[in-house]
Write a structure and sequence with these properties.
It comes from Streptomyces broussonetiae. InterPro entries: PspAB-like. This is DUF4192 family protein. It is a single chain. The chain is of the alpha+beta class and about 200 residues long. It has one domain (about 15-180). The protein is built from five helices and eight strands; from the N terminus they run H-H-E-H-E-E-H-E-E-E-E-E-H. The chain has helices at about 1-10, 25-35, 55-70, 100-115, 165-175; strands at about 40-50, 80, 85-95, 120-130, 135-140, 145-150, 155, 160. The protein has a six-stranded antiparallel beta sheet. Strands 7-8 form a two-stranded antiparallel ribbon. Helix 3 (about 55-70) runs antiparallel to helix 4.
Length: about 200
């Protein structure tokens, strides 16, 4: 009866998180470079609502150990940062040509948090891109929706602005590569996001 009422009232169930959607990013990056000249920066991040306590500290240590165990890494590839809005970001840094490995990092962080009961705190993941003129772009994965959207902040100038025309262009370019979020109201600006 509940399903029938949902259909009659036009209510739909939100899409379940599907972390395997992240693995579509490397092929989407090829399309993005060919169509719009944006290439990966080698930076990506997972954002989650800040969680306190010993359980979270344990997860953080496990995730960091998992990612740091990769023998190809140099320096300090993983950091935990808080943004101005109080959200926590686990940022992974790779060489720009290591997008598949970066995607594996993001998938591992999301999966580890999900398995350990922190799925409700997961908000989004992003991968950074730049064009030859240095314009930034992020492909953002909304954890609770299982969809992606582009975010293109405009540098400089007064206030925070985004390049909405570019975002719509990127949406059209990637529609066959990624599950793109159709509700533009959910294309949240990620001002000052670590990893972008």
């Amino acid at each position: 009866m509940g399903r029938l009422m949902d259909i009659l009232l036009g209510r739909s169930k939100p899409a379940a998180p599907d972390l395997d959607q992240l693995f579509a990013l490397p092929s989407a990056a090829v399309t993005l470079e060919a169509a719009a000249s944006f290439t990966p920066t080698g930076r990506g991040a997972v954002c989650f609502a800040t969680v306190e306590g010993a359980a979270f500290e344990q997860i953080h240590r496990e995730v960091r150990a998992l990612l740091d165990a990769d023998s190809d890494r140099r320096g300090s590839p993983v950091s935990l940062e808080r943004d101005d809005y109080g959200y926590t970001w686990l940022v992974s840094r790779r060489s720009p040509d290591e997008l598949p490995q970066l995607v594996n990092d993001l998938h591992a962080v999301n999966s580890s948090m999900e398995i350990n009961g922190f799925g409700p705190q997961l908000l989004c993941s992003l991968v950074g891109f730049r064009d030859p003129d240095g314009r930034p772009l992020a492909l953002v994965y909304l954890y609770k929706r299982g969809t992606f959207y582009p975010f293109a902040p405009l540098p400089g100038g007064p206030g925070q602005r985004r390049d909405s025309a570019l975002e719509l262009q990127i949406k059209a370019v990637l529609v066959n590569d990624l599950r793109v979020e159709q509700d533009l109201g959910r294309w949240f600006p990620l001002w000052g996001a670590p990893g972008l």
